[in-house]
Amino acid sequence: MTAPYFSIIMPVYNAQDSLPATIASVLAQSESDFELIVLDDGSTDNSLHQLLELSAQDERVRLVSQNNKGVSATRNFAMGLARGEFIAFLDSDDHWHPEKLAMHRRVHAAQPFADASFAKVVFVENGTSPDWRYGRQSSVQNMTYSASEFLAENPSCTMSNVVVRREAALAAGPFMHGMSFAEDQEWLLRLIGNGSNLVGIDAALVGYMVSETGLSANFDAMLSGWRELFDRYGPAQERSAAEALYFRYLARRALRMGSSARIAMHYARQGLAINARSFLADGKRGWATLCCCCAALFMPRPMRTHFFA
User: Residues near 213 by Cβ (< 8 Å), separated by ≥ 6?
Assistant: First the structure.
C-alpha cells in the first residue's frame, strides 16, 4: 500500500458531541492524500461507537482503541503508527478549514527547508462554526520561528495547528507525560532545539473551540505549566521578561475567550508588575493589550468577544 502524504493524529476521549463535525472537517479537505489515525483513549461515552461507524465509511480512517493513558501517551503511540511524509495533529473538538492540508503542502513544497508549519487559528464558541473571514484570530507571521518565541508564548495556540515532517517529529522524541497544559510547547521547543525549522503561515486554517469552563480556559494551570517549562529550558536571567510576556499572552487569551474582564486585567497587572518594559514591548501587542484590558471592564461580554483578538 502506498504511503499517504499526510498522517493525521487525533486523540479522542469522551468527545461524542464534537467528533462528527471534527472528522467531517477532515474528510472535506481538498487535499485527499492522507490517513486519519483516530486513537480512542478509553472513552466512557458514545465516542467509540461513533468512531466505529465513521471509520467504516472511509478507508482512510484508521481506528485504534486503548485503555485511558492520557493525551501525551496517545499521541506518542499514534506517531509510531504514522506512515505519511508529514504528521498533522488534530484535537477531537477542533475544526479544519477545507484548504488546511493543501495550504501546508504548498508551503512545504515551496520551502523545502521547513520541517514544520502552523497557521492562524480562529477562536470558536462551543456549538458554533468557525467564521474563517471575520472571526477572532491569532497572529502569525510568514517567518521561521525561534525557540525563544515559543518559550515566552505559544504562537501556534494548539497542536491542532501543527504539521511536521515525520522524520523530524520522531527525532524530537515523545510528548512528555504528566504535562497537561504545556506539553505541546515543550515538544515544539525540543523540535526546534533539535535543529528543525518551524515556519508560520499567515492564513486562518484551524477553528479552535474555546470554553470558559474547558481545559483551554484554565489559566492558572497554564501558568503553572509554563513555569515548569521555563524552569526546564529558560535562561534564569531572562525569566522576568519572559514571564511578563506570558502574562500578556494570558491576558490576550482571556479577552479572546470571553472570560471575565477582571481576569484579563489581573494578568495584565501581574505582567506589568514583573517587567513592564517587556510587557509593553511591541506596541501592537503591548500597549494594545493593556488598553483592551481596561476597555473590557466597561463592555458586556458579547461586545468583548466581538472586538478583542
Answer: none
Reference 240, options 187, 248, 290; nearest CA is: 248
CA angle 140, 271, 308 (to 5 degrees): 45
C-alpha cell at 38: 483516530
Report d(CA 90, CA 12) in Å as an integer: 10
Q: Using 50, 70 and 90 to split pLDDT, how confident is the model at 309?
A: very low
CA distance 295 to 288: 10
Could you write out the DSSP letters of every residue in the chain?
A: -PPPSEEEEEEESS-TTTHHHHHHHHHT-S---EEEEEEEES-SSSHHHHHHHHHHH-TTEEEEEES---HHHHHHHHHHH--SSEEEE--TT-EE-TTHHHHHHHHHHH-TT-SEEEEEEEEEETTS---TTTS-B----SSEEPHHHHHH--TT-SGGG-EEEHHHHHHH-PPPTT-SSSHHHHHHHHHHHTT--EEEEEEEEEEEEE-TTSGGG-HHHHHHHHHHHHHHHS-GGGHHHHHHHHHHHHHHHHHHTT--HHHHHHHHHHHHHHHHHHHH-STTTHHHHHHHHHHHTTS-HHHHHHH--
- From residue 87, alpha-carbon distances to 53, 54, 79, 185, 201 in Å are 24, 21, 8, 17, 17
Work out the number of other CB atoms within 10 angstroms of the CB of residue 118: 27
Rounded Cα distance, 141 and 249, in Å: 16
Distance CA 67, CA 64 (A): 11
pLDDT digits (tens, 9 = 90+) for 56-100: 999 999 999 999 999 999 999 999 999 999 999 999 999 999 999
Q: Cell 510528548 identifies what position?
A: 175
**Neighbouring residues of 52: CB distance < 8 A, sequence distance ≥ 6:** 63
Pick the closest to residue 40 from 27, 50, 28, 25 (CA basis). Answer: 50
